[in-house]
Amino acid sequence: MNIRICIVLLLLPLCTAFAADLTGKWSGTFRATGADHDIPQLFILQQDGAGLHGSGGPDQSEQYPIENAVINGDKVTFELTTGEWRFSYRLRVSGGEMSGDLDLKSENNARKAKVSLKRVE
User: Fold this and answer.
1) What is the pTM of this model?
2) Superfamily for domain range 19-119
C-alpha cells in the first residue's frame, strides 16, 4: 500500500506537466483528406482548470463558440458549428503546439482533416 502511494506521488508531477494552460491565441491550418490546399484556423482559448472556453474560425473576424470541450492530460477535444458544418477536433498538446484530427460533418457530407496549430499569444 505504501509503495502505491509513493508511486502515485512520484508520477503526479509528470501528469501535471502535460496539463499546460491552453489560454491564448492559437493559429494554424487544417487540410481535408484529398484536398490540395490548407484552410486557416485561429482559436482564442480560455482554460479554467479542466474546462476550456473560447472560439475558433478562419480568422479574428469570423469566430464561432467552442462547445463540448474536454482536456485530459495532453489530449484536447472540442467542437464548433459553422452554419451547416459541425467541426469535431481531437488534438494532442506538445509545448506550444497542438496537432491531430478533425471530423467535418454536414447533413449531406463528411470529411476528415489533419490539424496543426501553434500558440501565437
Assistant:
1) 0.82
2) Quinohemoprotein amine dehydrogenase alpha subunit, domain 2 (2.40.128.120)
